[in-house]
Automatic annotation (TrEMBL), chain B:
Keywords: ATP-binding, Cell cycle, Cell division, Cell membrane, Membrane, Nucleotide-binding. Belongs to the ABC transporter superfamily. SUPFAM superfamilies: P-loop containing nucleoside triphosphate hydrolases. It comes from Acidithiobacillus marinus. Homodimer. Forms a membrane-associated complex with FtsX. This is Cell division ATP-binding protein FtsE. It is found in: Cell inner membrane; Cell membrane. One of its GO terms (biological process) is cell division. The lineage of its organism: Bacteria, Pseudomonadati, Pseudomonadota, Acidithiobacillia, Acidithiobacillales.
Amino acid sequence: MSAIHIRLEAAQNALHTLVKQPLATLMTIFALAIVLALPVGLFAALNNLQQLLGQWRDQAQISLFLHQDATEQDVQQLQKQLQSSTGVVNVRYVGKSAALQEFEKNAGMTAAIKILGENPLPASFIVELNPLSESPAALQAQIQSWARLPGVASAQSDLHWVARLQAILALGKTAVWILAIMLAVGAILVMGNTIRLHIAQRRDEIDIASLVGATRAFIRRPFLYQGLIQGAIAGILAWIIIAITIAILQGPVDRLATLYGTRFELLGLTGLEGLILIAISAILGWLGSRLAVGQHLDHTFS
Amino acid sequence: MIEFINVTKHYPGRHHVLRELNLKLPTGQMALLTGPSGAGKSTLLKLLLRLEDVSHGTLMVNGVDVSTLKKRHIPAYRRRIGVVFQDHKLLMDRDVFSNVALTLQVSGMHAKLIQNRVRAALEKVGLGNRIHNMPATLSGGEQQRVGIARAIVHTPEILLADEPTGNLDGSLSTEILDMFRDFHQHGTTVLVATHDQTQVERLGLPVFHLEQGMLQNSQEKSA
């Protein structure tokens, strides 16, 4: 019999065993799916948070004040340089007179300005940055390099909140990773325990097969396929759970976003991410089975 | 050829089950292994199947040193042997065909060939018409014949049986042991453990008699 036939037969055997006990199989698959949906759902939530924070780019503004004697050519060159820099979303030039108008409008100090005779306000560039495009240190270094550009007198920014935001996100990611690892171990144990029960039910068959010359691989294969199949189905189910959760949450999120005068679309898993989830889930199922059946076979073949 | 050379088997903290055992069973021969309960018959068969390790000495089976056989080679070695148990060891949730086919499936034989071989083996033991029966629907004698079919379906070099007639009445025992004699006449080396003295006398075959782990009949050490 060819290697493919042997594997097909083992897969058939595994499917047959799973179908024969539908309730136990479904319970295992649901338990695994929930265990997997938790960390993956949190990852999706973090992605959405990151996307939401990315939309607050107007809060990451840097003002570059120009020398009073900066020429038109300096201004044009500066604009080009700024626009081509990493993480820059928008560059707005505020000329001297526009700055004065804005100052008068905001500060209401028209009389005081008039006493000065000439406009004391410098021209400036307002640079809007994506706060999550670089680390706070890199953003700070970029701002310092802009401050040294010809025509620039000084740069003003408040990036402390960016550092805090990035630290919170990093903390969230680390926490989710730890949770994911713990739940992956949980998934392996769930599968290992299920397979252990199947092994107990089929102990006679394993012992007799071993007596008539079955190899470890022959005995192990149907159990591994059981773990793989259940793991893969649990991965699909976890993907569906996340998609349904996002669909349910989209309505309230829409209403909340409207209150803030904006729109926000929740992100689910992409096709590739979903496939990775299924693959990881199948591997976890396989691994749990391998541990359980390996332990039993060590005893049988010792 | 089965050859035990100064074979000892003991379990930690327990007495010796087999002591300095020397016996030889040439290829194609049939012999009976007798002795009271606890004499070491089953242990001897377990050593031959490599279900247990030899504590001291050498056990050679058809040129293979079983006492030093690596674990990964054990399955291939076992596929050269057929074994029959007193309690049949059948899978009660599988039909007769599946029980017998298992021996061939583990060696990766093609399904079509398995069908033919299983049918032939069942015909040989007189169960050609019971192929799809479940073991529970068969009598004790028939269940034992399924066990025998499973042991011979791959035409093993050696056939071992541990008290194969222990649960059967006189006429059935005769039938089963005659079946073993048939296989031996076709060239298979056969070793049957039994305590049925009537059958031992009837068959007139070489006998290895064990008492407290030692071979008693030195004149018959070699069959």
